[in-house]
Amino acid sequence: MSVAALPVRLARFDDLEDSGSRGFDPGGQGRDTLLLVRRGDEVFAYLDACPHYGGTPMAWRKDAYLNGDGTRIVCHAHGAQFDIATGECLAGPCIGQRLTRLDAAVTEDGNVCIFMSPDSAPTCDEAGDEKVRR
Ligand code: FES
Predict the structure, then answer these.
(1) How far is the CA of 52 from the centre of ligand 1 (A)?
(2) In this model, does residue 97 exceed pLDDT 80?
(3) What transmembrane ranges does the database entry give (predicted)?
(4) How far is the CA of 75 from the centre of ligand 1 (A)?
(5) First-residue to last-residue Cα distance in the chain
(6) Does ligand 1 have an atom closer than 6 angstroms to the CB of 91?
(7) Closest C-alpha residue for ligand 1 atom 4
(8) pTM recorded for the entire structure
(9) Domain positions in the chain
(10) Domain spanning 6-133: CATH 2.102.10.10
(11) What are the b/e assignments for 8-37, b being 16+ CB within 10 Å?
(12) Is 93 a pocket residue for ligand 1 (Cβ < 6 Å)?
């Protein structure tokens, strides 16, 4: 039997810097386990786990997931560079592998939500199906 994923609110869309990234710890593990990247009106969500080596966390400091010009996600362990829209590694030691993408949505009232298993984190009260835009 499968269990439906629940929406989990991470942030207000307007609080995310355009062309910026931010890490989150929705499961309360004591470290950021996923990241959001905003590009204009879009937001992309990935696990903070590099496919090169054992799911290594990628930021070199809090929220530092992008390269200098903000065009790629970077793992600072060995320099892998990932396409923001697809999560595919385009340069570095794991070319062709991908970050694990999460299903993200922005509600009509401006909350960014991801969808997680029910035991992971508080739900996003504002994210009923009819309110979610993609
Ligand atoms: S662990 Fe990310 S590039 Fe090596």
Answers:
(1) 5
(2) yes
(3) none
(4) 6
(5) 27
(6) no
(7) 78
(8) 0.86
(9) 6-133
(10) yes
(11) bbbbebeebeeeebbbbebeeeeebbbbbb
(12) yes
